[in-house]
Each structure stands twice: as structure tokens, then as C-alpha cells.
Write a structure and sequence with these properties.
With 423 residues, the protein is of the alpha+beta class. Helix content is 30%, strand content 28%. The strands form 6 sheets. Strands 12, 15, 18, 19, 22 and 23 form a 6-stranded antiparallel sheet that branches. Strands 3-2-1-4-5 form a 5-stranded parallel sheet. The longest helix is centred in the middle third of the chain and has 21 residues. The site of adenosine monophosphate (AMP) has 14 residues, from β7, β8 and β17.
């Protein structure tokens, strides 16, 4: 079978690596991919942008692609699944309507409220003056979110009125997120511990993937600006068996059922970003796709055939299928370009990327190959991931490789996993 994976991040490298291990798979195309995906067995990068839906459709027809898997949210929100299905192409991902769960924070928050799913109290504003007035009566910290897609950068946790006004000004006046910021959601700040809970839906059945935890802040001790994610581990000890059961019953099921009652069938990965305090579980966000960098440690722990699971889900045939996971832990550390999540330079040489141990894997994200040399090509550049019999072992093995990579222009957090290791 021929697979097409859309995207160019660490998530897509991990998908390509895992899918290509399946005996069902002859060839994996990645559009556009990165320097890591093109080095994987059976894999080939295709120079088509991940948002160029008509070119992707034509490619899938031309190459008789058996299954397309969509990594990032942007093509989903733009309606790639609707377009592929219209052309009888098998694709795994939610429709344009279903992707609103990530594409609009207002849609997501209103949906949660309507379906009695716990989430932070919020207000939505389209008027700048009204949003400023709301802030003048608020307690801090408070959370300000651009309504639309902002590449993981649309959320500000404001600790003062000044920070809140700046976030509103940036989104609504300066329009730094374009039309994504013309509406904002302002919500209460929740305390607790975060976890990522990802499930796969086939339109009828929903199966959970292993739990994980991301590290969104740029710097050690969760300081600094929010990023797309600086490292992740799996499983997340905070997601006990009881919490897992509660999440499935009180969050995932009412979400899938609530969408269905609005005439929306959800197919594909659904990612719930959770805040857990004691046994209270709130939804911080939904994503209509797999997480990055959560994919990297999660897929390292997966023993089942990912290609087969994705095919079954796209065909609506998951039935009672379960996924098997190693009991080992996995932990991934992101190495980013100095300056990220703000301005940074590209085209810097990176060396010593080879895996030295079968339990380590260097996943690429913002990389490209030029005349045989790997160069940096984005903000988050690598995610060095390792398996260990404990979380501490996986951390030690991941950092051993992180320190050995030769790239002067990169930086990383050195406390990934520490909160779970110490608790
Ligand atoms: P989001 O994209 O909505 O998940 O927000 C990005 C990150 O901001 C989350 O992973 C949290 O770390 C933080 N965050 C978002 N909303 C809240 C909230 N209401 N309370 C506390 N932290 C939040
Ligand atoms: N790691 C967070 C996300 O994928 O949105």
C-alpha cells in the first residue's frame, strides 16, 4: 500500500518512521517532509505545501494513494478531508466542520458549555474597547486567546493588566495573528497539572492512545513565553486509571456525542488538552489532530501496527480494536533555534544526528537537506526521544544524545519530565 503523510514537523517524522515499519506499507510519501523523513526506509519527500489542497489531491489520485494521514491543523480546518472524500480518496482526519473544535476557540468553548463539559469560565469579545473594560474588572492571572489558528502562539497568560492590554492590542489592533485575532476569548486561569489525552475516532468507535504531557513554556521551570511544545513524555503519571476512565466518560464521549447531535461525525485524532486538579478535570483546548511533540514519545511506546490502525479508523472499522503499548516510558526533548518562539535564524549546519542506541531516536522537525548537509529550517528543529524502563532512564538517555548533537545555534530545556520524576 502507498501512504501519504501531510506535514513537515516532528509529528510527521514520527508518523513516517512508525508507518514505514508496517508490512502493509510499500511506500510512504511525505508532503513536504523534512531532512528526517526523507532518510527513513520506504519514505520519499514530495515538494507540495501542506496547505495546497488541490495539489495534494491531484498527487493522491496520480499515485493511487491508499491512505492519506493529515498531521497539522491548517489543512484540516481548510477542508482537506471534504475535498479528498469528494474525490473518493481515503483520508484520516476530521471534516472542515468537525475541525472547528480547534479552528475556533469560541466554537470550542460554546460547545463545551452547551454539553456541560468542565472548562474555564470565559467571555468572547469582538470589540476591543469592551475587552479592555472586561480586563479592568478582572483578577490576574487571566488567559487571553486568539479565536482562530495562530500556530500555537495565540495564547497569553497575563499576570497584570498591562500584559493583558498588550495581548489584546497585539491581537485586535495590531492584528499580529491576522484575522485569527479579530475575536478573542478571555478565560479564567486554571491551576493544576496538564496532560494531553489523545484518542482516535472512526466515526463510530473511539480508542484512546497512551497519555502524555507536553511542556509548553520555553524555559526551565515553566517560565518564559508559550511555544508549540519544548518536550513531552509518555505515560503521564497524573493520568491514573481512574482519571483515564473519567476523561473517557465525562469529556471524550460527550464531545463525540455532542458533535453527532449537531450533525457532525468526528473521524480522526482528537486531542484534549486537560488541566487536572485533585479529581477535577477541565478541558483547556481541543486539537483536531495528534500533538507535537507528544507524538514522538507516544509512538516510540506503541507496539501495534500504526498503519493498520489508521486504515481501520479511516474505513470506519476500528470495532473493539485495542492498541498495545510497552510499559517502558518515553521522553522527548525539543531542540529549538535560538530566538524561538520569536525571530531566529535558519540554514545553520547540524551534525552528529545519527542514533547511537536503538532506544534513542532523533526526530527531525524544522530541518532540510542541502548538498547532503542537514540545515536548520524552522523554530522547533529536533526532538530527541528515548525509551527507558523508568521516566528517569528515558530522560537520561534522551539528554545523552541531546548533548552530543553538534549544533551551536540551538537551545533546549533541561528539565523535561522533572515534575513527574520528582513526584
Ligand atoms: P491552549 O492552546 O488553549 O492549550 O493554550 C496553551 C497553553 O496555555 C496550555 O497548554 C496551558 O499551558 C496554558 N493555558 C491555556 N488556557 C489556560 C487556562 N485557562 N488556565 C491556565 N493555563 C492555561
Ligand atoms: N503540543 C501541543 C500541540 O500539539 O498542540
Amino acid at each position: 500500500m502507498n501512504f501519504l503523510i501531510i506535514g513537515n514537523g516532528g509529528r510527521e517524522h514520527a508518523f513516517a518512521w512508525k508507518i514505514s515499519q508496517s508490512s502493509l506499507v510499500q511506500k510512504v510519501f511525505i508532503a513536504p517532509g523534512n531532512a528526517g523523513t526523507e532518510r527513513e526506509n520506504k519514505c520519499e519527500n514530495i515538494n507540495i505545501d501542506s496547505e495546497d489542497i488541490s495539489a495534494l489531491r491531484d498527487f493522491a489520485i496520480e499515485k493511487s494513494i491508499d491512505l492519506t494521514i493529515v498531521g497539522p491543523e491548517a489543512p484540516l480546518v481548510k477542508g482537506i478531508v471534504d475535498e479528498f472524500e469528494k474525490n473518493n480518496l481515503l483520508i484520516l482526519g476530521p471534516s472542515k466542520k468537525a475541525s472547528q473544535i480547534e479552528g475556533s476557540k469560541k466554537f470550542m468553548k460554546d460547545f463545551l458549555k452547551k454539553n456541560h463539559i468542565r472548562t474555564a469560565e470565559y467571555e468572547v469579545f469582538e470589540d476591543y474597547e469592551e475587552s479592555k473594560e472586561y480586563i479592568s474588572k478582572s483578577k490576574f492571572p487571566i488567559v487571553i486567546k486568539a479565536d482562530g489558528l495562530a500556530a500555537g502562539k495565540g495564547v497569553t497568560i497575563a499576570h497584570s493588566a498591562e500584559e493583558a492590554h498588550k495581548a489584546l492590542d497585539d491581537a485586535m489592533q495590531k492584528k499580529i495573528f491576522g484575522s485569527a485575532g479579530t475575536k478573542v476569548v478571555i478565560e479564567d486561569f486554571l491551576q493544576g497539572e496538564e496532560a494531553s489525552f489523545i484518542v482516535l475516532c472512526d466515526g463510530k468507535k473511539t480508542i484512546p492512545f497512551a497519555s502524555s504531557q507536553d511542556h509548553k513554556a520555553r524555559d526551565n521551570n515553566d517560565l518564559g513565553p508559550n511555544t508549540g511544545g519544548m518536550g513531552a513524555y509518555s505515560p503521564a503519571p497524573i493520568v491514573t486509571e481512574e482519571i483515564h476512565k473519567q476523561v473517557m466518560e465525562k469529556i471524550i464521549k460527550p464531545t463525540i456525542d455532542g458533535l453527532k447531535s449537531e450533525g457532525i461525525t468526528y473521524k480522526g485524532f482528537l486531542y484534549a488538552g486537560l488541566m487536572i486538579k485533585n479529581s477535577e478535570i477541565s478541558v483547556l483546548e481541543f486539537n483536531c489532530r495528534f500533538g507535537d511533540p507528544e507524538t514522538q514519545p507516544i509512538l516510540m511506546r506503541m507496539e501495534s501496527d500504526l498503519a493498520e490502525i489508521c486504515l481501520l479508523a479511516a474505513q470506519g472499522n476500528l470495532n473493539e480494536r485495542e492498541i498495545s503499548w510497552t510499559k517502558d516510558s518515553a521522553l522527548g526533548v525539543v531542540i529549538a533555534s535560538k530566538g524561538y518562539p520569536f525571530e531566529y535564524e535558519k540554514n545553520k549546519e547540524i551534525n552528529n544526528l545519527e542514533n547511537e542506541n536503538p532506544r534513542q531516536k532523533v526526530f527531525h522537525a524544522g530541518t532540510k537537506t542541502q548538498e547532503g548537509q542537514v540545515l536548520s529550517n524552522g523554530g522547533r528543529v529536533l526532538c530527541v526521544t528515548a525509551l527507558g524502563s523508568t521516566l528517569l532512564d528515558s530522560k537520561n538517555l534522551a539528554y545523552q544524545k541531546v548533548k552530543n548533537i553538534d549544533w551551536k545555534d540551538g537551545f533546549y530545556r533541561d528539565d523535561i519530565g522533572d515534575k513527574a520524576i520528582k513526584s
